[in-house]
């Protein structure tokens, strides 16, 4: 589970940096993705797809392991 925490902090840092950069809170930085952040929305959508697929794969693996454990207990 520690890796999930690192992914959370890394993604939160990326998203906060993206928003800070593009809202011109930094004075000498030119925004590359103006509000409403279409680029950020695309990145978040891709991240969501990858996260959903990885969760489904993990659940499938857990389900297979549970079935194996049940089969071993029945013998």
What is this structure, in a nutshell?
The protein has 75 residues and is mainly alpha-helical. The chain is 77% helix and 0% strand.
Number of helices: 2
| Total number of strands | 0
Overall 3D shape? elongated
- Contiguous low-pLDDT stretches (5 residues minimum) are none
Which structural class is indicated by helix and strand composition?
A: mainly alpha
Mean pLDDT across the residues is 90
SS strand fraction: under 5%
The main β sheet shows up as:
none
**Rg over alpha carbons:** 20 Å
Task: Give the helix level as a range of percent.
Answer: over 70%
Rounded to the nearest angstrom, the distance between the terminal CA atoms is 32 Å
Q: How are helices and strands ordered from N to C?
A: HH
What does it look like?
- The protein has 75 residues and is mainly α.
- Helix content is 77%, strand content 0%.
- The protein has helices at 2-22, 38-74.
- The two termini are 32 Å apart.
- The model has no long low-confidence stretch (mean pLDDT 90).
